[in-house]
From TrEMBL:
<dbReference type="GO" id="GO:0106361">
    <property type="term" value="F:protein-arginine rhamnosyltransferase activity"/>
</dbReference>
<keyword id="KW-0808">Transferase</keyword>
<comment type="similarity">
    <text>Belongs to the glycosyltransferase 104 family.</text>
</comment>
<dbReference type="InterPro" id="IPR016633">
    <property type="entry name" value="EarP"/>
</dbReference>
<keyword id="KW-0251">Elongation factor</keyword>
<protein>
    <recommendedName>
        <fullName>Protein-arginine rhamnosyltransferase</fullName>
    </recommendedName>
</protein>
<keyword id="KW-0648">Protein biosynthesis</keyword>
<comment type="function">
    <text>Protein-arginine rhamnosyltransferase that catalyzes the transfer of a single rhamnose to elongation factor P (EF-P) on 'Lys-32', a modification required for EF-P-dependent rescue of polyproline stalled ribosomes.</text>
</comment>
<dbReference type="Pfam" id="PF10093">
    <property type="entry name" value="EarP"/>
</dbReference>
<dbReference type="GO" id="GO:0003746">
    <property type="term" value="F:translation elongation factor activity"/>
</dbReference>
<keyword id="KW-0328">Glycosyltransferase</keyword>
Length: 389
């Protein structure tokens, strides 16, 4: 039986990663699969950075074919339940409100209940994907749905027209000019273009120094935010220099602070750059589809569990035909960028830069392989329709 509607519950943890995934999934379920989608978000302020039309003060609004509702995810908060949709997605174990769970159990046809998990390349993901967990008290069953980089997982979010849009952008000077106008800057001739989206990072000053002192001109485009503030401080300027439109230059480095682009335009920034530094989950997935060399600033965790995830991703990437010296340079750079070791080392940009052609070829090959896993949204819909009673 077809799924026709969906509730997605999201709590914003690291500012953009959680809502970025949920907003992208919500739009795809609405626009490509024709679902009536209701997206519940606890932090509309962060959401508005990705979708400026969102009004953080409104409890209910519509955008992109999706109904957006604010909810209080704190324990014991009041919640007025609405009749649940055919599919209920609990994103990243955010815990559904008890009144909504009761409404799900009382529905004439209980919805399919999905816990959408975080992205990981670890081997155990395939073993746990699609496992079920009955509710201890209610007649409900929750299924665990894992994004992933291997068969036996849910794959990665990818819109059906994304490849065609990328090719159209790369072949259109007008589209590229529109992007640069939107960013408030222009590409520098003969410069290596780098997008830098990162958390505050102790390794950033050493990298900026290497770009400054290197022989290759680097144009670094950094969105307004923590990394821009850290870079402005490294240049010795006031915090105001972290505002969009600021250009800072030392030696071979030109750093330009750009506006925080809306989610639909972020792909174009990745396509226009030679190297992409990304953080969290949503931007990491988009960097894969950009088929450019990338560096992942994975969300840090106190128990260093993120290093296990990062190494699993690096090991899986190295198996897609990457030359050993390129794989080694990629691993060493990502380790330094993510603070490995009791005394973290500065990232070796010269070694990484020398392997960019090989890494670009490997990344293009890998993203083509990942397409064979299918799109996460379509995989999710097919999985759920097989479980509708």
């Amino acid at each position: 039986m077809p799924i026709q509607s969906c509730d997605i519950f999201c709590t914003v943890v690291d500012n953009f990663g959680d809502i970025g995934v949920c907003w992208r999934l919500a739009r795809q379920l609405s626009q490509e699969h024709g679902h009536a989608v209701r997206l519940w978000v606890d932090d509309l302020g962060s959401f508005a950075r990705l979708a400026p039309e969102i009004d953080p003060a409104r409890a209910c609004q519509h955008l992109g074919g999706v109904e957006v509702r604010r909810w209080d995810a704190s324990p014991g908060a009041s919640f007025e339940p609405l009749p649940p949709h055919d599919l209920v997605i609990e994103a990243f174990a955010c815990h559904l409100p008890e009144p909504f769970l009761a409404a799900m159990a009382a529905a004439p046809r209980p919805p399919v209940w999905i816990n959408l998990e975080y992205l990981s390349a670890e081997a155990w993901v395939s073993e746990h994907h699609a496992l079920s967990s009955p509710h201890p008290k209610l007649p409900l069953v929750k299924y665990f749905f894992f994004p992933g980089f291997a068969h036996g997982t849910g794959g990665l979010l990818r819109e059906s027209m994304l490849g065609a849009q990328r090719e159209a952008f790369l072949s259109s000077r007008a589209a590229q000019s529109t992007l640069w106008y939107r960013l408030g800057t222009q590409p520098l001739p003969d410069a290596l273009r780098v997008s830098l989206f990162a958390y505050t990072n102790p390794a950033l000053p050493a990298l900026l120094a290497q770009w400054r002192d290197g022989a290759t001109p680097v144009q670094c485009l950094v969105p307004q935010g923590p990394a821009a503030q850290q870079a402005a401080a490294w240049f010795g300027g006031p915090a105001a220099q972290a505002a969009p439109g600021t250009t800072l230059t030392q030696g071979s480095l030109t750093l330009q602070v750009i506006p925080f682009v809306r989610q639909e335009n972020y792909d174009e920034l990745l396509w226009a750059c030679d190297v992409n530094f990304v953080r969290g989950e949503d931007s990491c997935v988009r960097a894969h589809w950009a088929a450019r060399p990338m560096v992942w600033h994975i969300y840090p965790q106190d128990d260093v569990a993120h290093h296990v995830k990062l190494d699993a991703w690096l090991e899986r990437f190295s198996r897609c035909g990457v030359p050993p010296e390129a794989a080694q340079a990629m691993t060493a750079f990502c380790h330094a960028w993510n603070g490995y070791g009791a005394t973290p080392h500065a990232p070796d940009w010269a070694q990484f830069h020398a392997q960019l052609p090989a890494l670009a070829t490997a990344m293009d090959r890998w993203q083509r392989q990942l397409q064979h896993l299918g799109d996460l949204a379509a995989n999710l819909v097919a999985f759920c329709e097989n479980r509708v009673k």
